[in-house]
Amino acid sequence: MKNNLFILLLLISTLSFSQNLKKERPSKEETKTFILAETKEGGKLDFFTKIKGIEYNGSQVKPGLFMTNIELALYSWGKANADLGVENIETALLIFTEYKGAELSDREKEIIPMGYRNDLKINHR
Questions:
Q1: For the chain, which terminus, N or C, has the lower number of CB atoms within 10 Å?
Q2: Alpha carbons 102 and 120: distance in angstroms, whole number
Q3: Long-range contacts: 10-13, Cβ < 8 Å, 24+?
Q4: CA 118 to CA 2: how far, in whole Å?
């Protein structure tokens, strides 16, 4: 009886786990479309609207580490891209270039990859 119960539970957990694996991931284009839409004002990835006018104010994000609000927003946006499964840093930078509609600044090219890699190990949103 115990063996049958164990086998039944094992079978149920295996089926449940395999169903979770079958969920389709969004395509690269769907991910890009989602990111562009959610980066717009009021979206889930809009880290920029709330800091308008105070972009260069700073705050301490870790002991001894200070970042401006715009740096923190760019870092958070880069990290969100990695969390959403954007394939690499170059793709994240291309998406931000499309969102911005202009060439990226050196600072953007530096901070977004830092966020994508989560170099600073901070979870700010």
A1: N
A2: 27
A3: none
A4: 47
Residue spans of the domains in the chain: they are 27-117
Please say whether the beta carbons of 56 and 68 come within 8 A: yes
Distance CA 7, CA 69 (A): 55
89 and 113 in contact (C-beta within 8 Å)?
Answer: yes
- Amino acid in position 12: I
Residue 87, token pair as written in the block: 């394939």
Q: How many CA atoms lie within 13 A of 3 on its CB side?
A: 0
Whether residue 109 has pLDDT greater than 70: yes
Hunting for tokens 């957990």 — which residue is that? 13
- Helix or strand (DSSP H, E) at 119: none
Considering only CA atoms, which of 26, 35, 25 is closest in space to residue 81?
Answer: 35
